[in-house]
Write a structure and sequence with these properties.
By secondary structure, the protein is an alpha+beta fold. Helix content is 39%, strand content 19%.
């Protein structure tokens, strides 16, 4: 499974309309996102129009290709393109990806593997301490 995060800049003067367009998203577009293999998809809007998106997928290249070929996604993205600053192309294809630098479950799993069976990193009572 791959975790993908991206950012875009929404035009500040169009923020209210952008939010309204996502309340709700077209049902056929929701179906296309799911059919592409994206799940746990969220968008977060910060002050000034900075938009951060997140989704999970088993094959991001295949998900991108599916949506790039989708007539429904093409219609949605054609309508949404005007909301973004400095964007060349469709928003779903041209968003700036973010680099993941921390993921709790990955680090807990790695810590558990490094410690072997003697410590459960999610249970503080099994972790050795230098405080004694």
């Amino acid at each position: 499974m791959t975790r993908v995060s991206f950012q875009l800049q929404v035009r500040p003067e169009l923020l209210d309309e952008y939010i309204a367009r996502h309340t709700p998203v077209w049902p056929e577009m929701l179906a296309e996102i799911a059919a592409a293999g994206r799940r746990n998809y969220s968008l977060f809007l910060a002050d000034g129009g900075r938009l951060v998106g997140y989704y999970e997928t088993d094959d991001d290249a295949a998900a991108q290709a599916y949506l790039a070929a989708s007539a429904v996604a093409a219609r949605w993205e054609a309508e949404m393109g005007r909301f973004f600053v400095g964007l060349d192309g469709r928003p779903d294809q041209a968003a700036t990806p973010l680099t993941e630098v921390f993921h709790l479950e990955d680090q807990l799993a790695a810590a558990g593997s490094a410690a072997g069976d003697s410590a459960d990193p999610t249970n503080p009572s099994t972790i050795e301490s230098d405080a004694s």
